[in-house]
Amino acid sequence: MQQEQPQVLPSYPRICLWPDSVNMLFSSPEALPLIVDGWNKRFLPLDGTKAKFSAESMPLSKIYLFAPRSDKGYAPCIETISRKDALLQMAQNTYMNYLLGKEQRAAEFDAIARLVSQVKVRRVIPHSDPARIPAMCELLEMDAASPA
User: Fold this and answer.
1) 34, 57, 80 — which closes off a domain?
2) Which structural domain range is residue 2 located in?
3) What is the pTM of this model?
């Protein structure tokens, strides 16, 4: 029996960002609205003005895991990683897994293992210099457009 291709479901139509990220992307830490008064975290609405949100489910063919920024000349770059490394990194970065019981955590681990067996996982190494963000975006667009 062939497994169905994983799908990405529509989610929250905004991206939450810290002020340093907002400053790096928009040249001002106040360029985006606050999430709530009294907290300096901001959000990028995906309403089509600066970025667009997809309201439809889409097939998932690749996952990109971000590594720490690098000053090396090869960055930004995208690397293929083993399924084992992908599984471990994804398991380490699931959200609120401390609330799961043993059986739930085992089921989550099984789901991640199935996912990395169906989807190519790549590591993105960004450059430390924000001026190289456009180059990283171009790399990601080209890699995403290539066959899985």
Assistant:
1) 57
2) 1-57
3) 0.81
